[in-house]
Amino acid sequence: MASSLSAAGVKIPFSAASVADATDELLGMRLNEGLNLIDEKADAGLQISVRATTGELLEYVVTDLNGCEVDPIIDVSVASKKKTTCWKCGKDSDGNTHCWQVPCPVIVGPWIPGKVITSGFILA
């Protein structure tokens, strides 16, 4: 199993079969109310979406390719001196953990329709 560094150089604190950075897909993306697909790992049979609800923090959801939420879904946050890095992880049907680095919901703040996530991971 392998893990990789995030764009900020912060390593996920456990071994994962795959780690991807989903932040680039979200930057500038105009989210719709409800679920928005961000990335798919077809070989693992998993995908990650973000749920946007007006006035609430973004919620990342890991599902199988049929849209059923996987169990368990693991939230990981690591704070360093300069920033906090967040990942959302899920297990595939073989029990392997797959993770995506995502903008931390508490940093992004409550979702506002029409706003996009900027490079500073805030809504503008």
How does this model look, in words?
This protein has a 4-stranded mixed beta sheet with strand order 1-7-6-5. The chain has a 3-stranded antiparallel beta sheet with strand order 2-3-4, with no helix packed on it. The chain has helices at residues 23-26, 105-108, and strands at residues 18-21, 34-41, 46-52, 59-64, 73-79, 84-91, 97-102. The protein contains 2 helices and 7 strands. The protein has one domain. The chain has 124 residues and is mainly beta. A hairpin with a 6-residue loop joins strand 3 (46-52) and strand 4 (59-64).
Question: Can you give me a brief rundown of this structure?
Answer:
The protein has 124 residues and is mainly β. Helices cover 6% and strands 37% of the residues.
